[in-house]
Amino acid sequence: MSRLADIRAKSRLRDILEGQPQHIGMAVFMACGAVFLLREGFGPDQYTPLGLDAARWAMIGIAFAILHQVIVAIGFRLQLHCNLLSRLFGRWDMAIWAALFMPLLVARPVFVSLVGWTDSVPITESRGVEIALGLALLAPAIWGMHSVLVHFTIPRAFGGDHFRDEIAALPLVSKGVFRYVDNAMYGVVFLGLWGIALLFGSWNALILAAFQHAYIWVHMYTVEGPDMAWIYGDRVEAESEQG
Question: According to DSSP H, which parts of the chain are helical?
Answer without folding.
Answer: 3-10, 13-16, 20-37, 54-82, 84-89, 93-118, 127-147, 154-157, 165-168, 184, 191-200, 203-219, 225-232, 235-242
